[in-house]
UniProtKB/TrEMBL annotation:
Catalysis performed (reactions): tRNA(Lys) + L-lysine + ATP = L-lysyl-tRNA(Lys) + AMP + diphosphate
Family, as annotated: Belongs to the class-II aminoacyl-tRNA synthetase family.
Protein name, UniProt field: Lysine--tRNA ligase
Chief location: cytoplasm
Record has Oxidoreductase as a keyword: no
Compartments where located: Cytoplasm
Organism: Pseudoprevotella muciniphila
Amino acid sequence: MNILDLNEQEINRRQSLEQLREMGITPYPAAEYPINAYTADILEEFDDNAETKREVCIAGRLMSRRIMGKASFGELLDAKGRIQIYITRDDICPGENKDMYNVVFKKLLDLGDYIGVKGCVFRTQTGEVSVHVQELTLLAKSIKPLPVVKEKDGQTYDSFDDPELRYRQRYVDLIVNPQVKDTFKKRSQVFKSMREYFDAHGYMEVETPILQSIPGGASARPFITHHNSLGVDLYLRIATELYLKRLIVGGFDGVYEIGKNFRNEGMDRTHNPEFTCMELYVAYKDYKWMMCFTEQLLEKICLDVNGTTEVKVGDNVISFKAPFRRLPMLDAIKEKTGYDLNGKSEEEIREICKTLGMEQIDETFGKGKMIDEIFGDFCEGSFIQPTFITDYPIEMSPLTKKHRDNPNLTERFELMVNGKELANAYSELNDPIDQEERFQDQLRLSEKGDDEAMFIDQDFLRAMQYGMPPMSGIGIGMDRLVMLMTGQFFIQEVLFFPQMRPEKQAPRDAAEKYVAIGVPEEIVPVLQKVGYYLVSDMKEGNAQKIQQQIGEIIKKYKLDVVKPSVADISEWLTKID
């Protein structure tokens, strides 16, 4: 790395790194470090009345240090928490050589370095449980400083709270913001609880292809890639549905998959193009059974994760105590807009959309998509408590069985919580002829210009023709579920590494453009460090000031380059167009 890309702290840390090596200390040792305890366990299990002091070997980051002559206090952060450490010169340097304390600990260690300590647990005179260090080992040198979060009188200063930085540098976010780690621990508990529930019912976890020749199972725009060996374009899956149904055809009674789906669509506070979804399919069940099953599942997860069936999201207290409200979709639209869409034609619904001022509706929208847009605009956000929206129009649900009482509807529900869809479920269509006709309807929508219309999967139709048992299926957005269980408003808060736009960088001219006006090549990085990223940036500059700026950088970074004269710089400036 060019030294000009480093700040002063980074340069000092690299110099400390070299000094450690010169002293014979390996800053990145390979040997196992035999930890036998974690900070949280030490604090929880400490016994003032124990006859002997507990000896521990722990490791983690050095997060603070208070040097007080021959003795010092520090704070060590490991995977479970923080603990105070007490270090004296003579304890860690029992011989004549005191360099481990006087040089290494006091001067060459930096905050953020990984260290290992062995010692005994005790309580200080101020009442804080601490580790009295007898042996200290450097395990990994940090050459980039962490943000220093300061606290005083209950107030936090210089906190690492810029969302852009936090999401791009999640590793730093996890170190300095302990509540973030708690969110992701709860995410893991959500997944564990769900698997326990499914496994207890005898359903099998499976894996299906992520690269697919047909992006089926949902209406969404896919990502496209190319397989060089096969010489074909493939799609990143938008859903797992059609492959899981093939397994039901193959003889499994219940299968589920928790995995990544990919949709090449918009990004906002509840959408990420790469997201985690759970899909479950159970033979011989219907959507009514699935509603009861889902209520019990979510109640269990909320209890396992939060110890209660209620969770606070902003100002709303959401109860996952079963049962949940059930409301037919067209009834919900009528309730919120005053329009009854039962029996309405495509053109009639298009006129209603115009009356409602829905400017996004155009000629490519079919009946189902228009109804979906009306519900999204006027209904969805109003359902805060868990609510099953049921009985969707047939045009909206090409993979769903017709309603047993009304052939214009389907046996489908979506679960709405806190104004957003959390789950989508069907009594699955298992009539292969009906399924093919509905795929043809989707093809006609695609020909009209709907780039989210469903593809026809001929192999799936063939599988259905061998006989598919009646079943119910459900998909749950796992990222949204975690948002609810942790009280978060932004999906980026529950993804370790959310998708981000490329980092913005100031445009820079190539070195050749500077050389063309007479600038020595070794001076180009110095000029750009000053801020002259483009040759044209110097056009209105003052030669004497530019020389002074170059000199300051050469001196600060101790560069072995010759400072140009004012006359040289004046000549450069005359050659700039």
